[in-house]
Amino acid sequence: MSPRGRRASLPTKRGKTAHGLMDGLVVRCFAEDGSASRDYHFDVLQVAPELRQGLAEAFARRTAPGAGLTSLESTNTAHRAAVLFSRYLATLAWPPTQMAHLVPEHLDGFFDSRKDKTRRAGEELAGLKLLLKHAEGLDEAVIAKLNESHPRRQRGREPKESYSQKDLKRIADAARTDLRAAASRIRKNREILHRFRQGDLPDQDRRMELLDWVDRFGDVPRRPCTTGAHAGRDIPRAWVFKRGSVDDIVCQLHLSGMEVTAGIILLTAMTGENKSVILKTPAVHHRADGHTGRTPTVILETKKPAAADGPT
After folding, report:
1. pLDDT one-digit tens code per residue, 236-272
2. How far out from the chain centre does Cα 158 lie?
3. At what angle do helices 165-197 and 207-217 cross, to 10 degrees?
């Protein structure tokens, strides 16, 4: 209710926070922590409308809250299984038009069509089976097929080998060296910028003006372009290039892409977490050592999604 006693308007059932199967064969999924969402379109699958509907409904159940998929990476895998399967069915002389028309040979044929293209064909078949287990109207023979064991992953001619502890140490040391150099560069430039803002340094060549702009906006000064290949876009002003490339200028106060990668590698080596966890780790932290000069200790708040059921 509003402060004056009027009934407040309620959000529509198909609002932005809707989850699952929506109008137009679109399934909306959210990451477990609510940090991101994605819409998956099943109306573009190259199969009959009724089969699209069945695959969309199965996907909605497969990705529903509590079904076991906790990240968008896992929902991407489930959606890819539907896409690849529909592409295979579209190549058949007599493709099925309903879920009830599927037969075990369709699953075998899908695996055969993928095994010469990727060594992950067995995992793709396993992902498809997990998706179809949430479908309705399947023939009993197909249901029995879904419970069969999955083909093992094919090994390459040259098996992959893990890095040795010595190699991992060298990689971590190189990443640590890169990050220390970046920290020194950024700290030095921020001290210079602080002195400029305090009025202690002149700005004869506009370098300080440029640093101040980068600090405030994370970019260089730009202007609209109306002609040429860059028409309709904002391009750096001509005087900016007297101080170097855009990347070089921005990186005076920020990490470069390679340095961010070094940070991810170092955090992975130090924590043992996978990439998806590291990429979502916030910069907000607590110095548990209290800057006392002892061993520096930083506490970060991270979240690792619970293990989801997947191909075995």
Report:
1. 999 999 989 999 999 999 999 999 999 999 988 888 8
2. 30
3. 120
Structure-token pair, residue 236: 């750096």
Closest C-alpha to 274, from 80, 123, 78, 73: 73
For tokens 């895998």, the residue is 77
Give residue for tokens 């990490």.
255
The answer to whether the beta carbons of residues 59 and 38 sit under 8 Å apart is no
Q: pTM, whole model, 2 decimals?
A: 0.61
Contacts of residue 312, defined as CB under 8 A and 6 or more positions apart, other chains included, come to 126, 150
Q: Is the dihedral of CA 221, 227, 228, 232 positive or negative?
A: positive
The enclosing H or E element of 26 equals: strand 26-30
Which runs of consecutive H residues, i.e. helices, occur in the chain? 49-62, 72-90, 104-115, 121-132, 140-146, 165-197, 207-217, 246-250, 257-271, 275-279
Please list, in sequence order, all residues whose beta carbon lies within 8 angstroms of the beta carbon of residue 236, skipping any fewer than 6 positions away. Answer: 220, 221, 222, 246
Neighbours of 252 (CB within 10 A): 20
Whole-angstrom distance, CA of residue 281 vs CA of residue 268: 11
